[in-house]
Design a protein that fits this description.
two-stranded antiparallel ribbon, globular, 5-stranded antiparallel β-sheet, 20% strand, Phosphorylase Kinase, domain 1, 2 domains, Transferase(Phosphotransferase), domain 1, alpha+beta, 248 residues
Length: 248
């Protein structure tokens, strides 16, 4: 398939913005070019509509050869790249990250993709990472026909004990892969067909990270506090059990 050159692609900017139905500030020329490259390389068949807009990213729906996907687009000019950089340089995998806005964000996306691959391969419930292109990350869609599954924070689960036990089981699988989510809470768990799905692995760290124990403790505290408040009998030894699994 023939690619447009960058100047030709810039001329399509207004039409593409209208087609994607999102604010122009999200899609600088380079981001639009990255989306087009994903379409041209047939990594995506269609880009549909936004389902979540945050301060630092926008999540769109789309379709690839397997069906619906979620497309997470980081805002190049609106991300707190200095905050991201502090996380990156403390991660032994990315300690050489340069303090440059674009490079920090591109490395951040690569990090999230790698963390998600580890999580998915470990067998936990999470989106399958499909591909990434600079500041654009494509993953499998959790929900039905373009309608995203709700966050745990937005619903009252019918069987909270079942949800809790599955989350604990997945936390242990993640620990066996020596990965800590780093930002696990009801806001980063989707519930689909009575199963919890972890999302947003951008702050995930390996066990050799200098703040590994602190991040692990925060994850356990967030989960146990939430389920404890809604009457679930929590595992008070979960933190120690995860530490033992990881050997930290």
């Amino acid at each position: 398939m023939e690619f447009l050159n960058f100047e030709e692609f810039k001329e399509r900017k207004e039409r593409l913005i209208e087609e994607f139905k999102v604010e122009a500030k999200v899609f600088d020329e380079r981001t639009l070019y990255n989306l087009y490259r994903l379409l041209a390389k047939r990594k995506l068949k269609e880009i549909k509509y936004p389902i979540k807009e945050g301060k630092e990213s926008v999540v769109l729906t789309g379709i690839d050869e397997d069906g619906w996907v979620a497309i997470k687009v980081y805002r190049i000019y609106h991300c707190d790249f200095k905050h991201m950089w502090k996380y990156l340089i403390s991660d032994p995998r990315f300690f050489a990250a340069k303090k440059n806005r674009r490079q920090v964000i591109l490395t951040w996306v690569k990090r999230e993709y790698k963390n998600m691959k580890i999580a998915f391969k470990s067998g936990i419930n999470c989106p399958e990472p499909k591909t990434f292109m600079e500041n654009v990350l494509v993953m499998s869609f959790i929900g039905d026909e373009g309608v995203p599954a709700p966050r745990l924070s937005d619903i009252i689960p019918e069987n909270p004990e079942k949800i809790y036990n599955k989350i604990v089981k997945d936390m242990k699988k993640l620990a066996k892969s020596n990965l800590i989510h780093g930002d696990l809470s009801p806001y980063n768990i989707l519930v689909y067909e009575e199963d919890p799905y972890m999302i947003d692995f951008s702050q995930g760290i390996k066990k050799n990270h200098p703040l590994a124990i602190d991040f692990l403790k925060k994850d356990v505290t967030n989960i146990n506090n939430y389920f404890g408040r809604i009457g679930v009998e929590i595992n008070k030894n979960l933190f120690d059990e995860l530490k033992e699994i990881m050997g930290i």
